[in-house]
Amino acid sequence: MLACTAARRIYTAPRFSRTFLRQGCNRSLSSLATEQKPSSGPSSRVVLSGIQPTGIPHLGNLLGALLNWVDLQKHAGPADNLLFSIVGWHALTLPQDPRTLRTSRRDILAVLLAIGIDPERSIVFHQDENPNHTELAWILNCMTPMGKLRRMTTWKSRLAASRNASDDTEVDESLLNAGLFTYPVLQAADILVYKATHVPVGEDQQQHLELCRDLAEIFNRTFKSEAPLFPLPQHVATPSRRILSLKDPSSKMSKSSPDTQSRILLTDTGAQIHAKVRGAVTDSISGITYDPKNRPGTANLLTILAACTGEDAVAVAERYCNKGHGHLKADVAEAVEEMIKKPRAEFERLKGETGYLTAVANVGAAKAREISEATMREIRARVGLV
Prior knowledge:
Largest sheet: 3 strands, parallel
Helix content: 40-55%
Radius of gyration: 22 Å
Oligomer: single chain
Mean pLDDT: 88
Number of helices: 15
């Protein structure tokens, strides 16, 4: 079996200070919020990203986004500001059960802490607890050409995923609501209200980041001053390739798929992981090669293994060139289990600590509002609302 003790992506549980754990639920928000003032200076970055509270993250979420946030936190400079948001307003663009959404908001916060996001280093908050996001979104909506929004294509893929359609040709505008149509503008507001300079997003969101840059330029040109108000945020590429469905490697791994065997969740046990990987779709070709076009199922397993060990998928494939899929699947399952077992245990511990999670969320929201309110004062002044 594959030895994973040196895997790059094995993270230990977050180590919170005893002071934060003991006092977080009792101290005033004002005293806690002042402990992490936003840095400033020509060399500082403002890094922002978000995740929707729509269920327990799967392996694709972890490898494609969340564990990269931990990497960003680990390698951030002392002057960098890191903001990680749970974007509840974006979740509302598709129908949600209120009780489930309420639980999912808390669970996603617990997940972020469990994988290693440190609330003493990064600002972790619920987007829907900061009204500055929606205020700026309205201002930007009033400046956004309809043509730009019509060129956004992700609403079709989101609708297709929510309806378990095979592709986005099966949905049309009759299913589209105004919130889903304009959510790229809210996403731009999420970024610009903190004057974010770097945004780690997946390939499917790059189009939205380009819209964000366009809107920042439109605002800067329309409301000129001595200096532009908004920086133009840069895309931060994530090193991992897209993780595909274990049952249909023509599509990405998804929480909305009706086949629960198609995805590996953070909460899956070791036995469940081994069973799901063992049942993953591959092919009947002898030997193992990395060929995403002609052997997508096999390539997906190699991608997962490479992401777990911090290696290149082609190099991993070379080790298995004379081995079969059974050997590869066993090693993939072992690597995934080794990677997530500590975060899984930490999540199970944290999700019951509702008082602590509430305290973390309150502190994060207070810090986020402090930063964004300074931006909104400038915006209101420039557009004439004060």
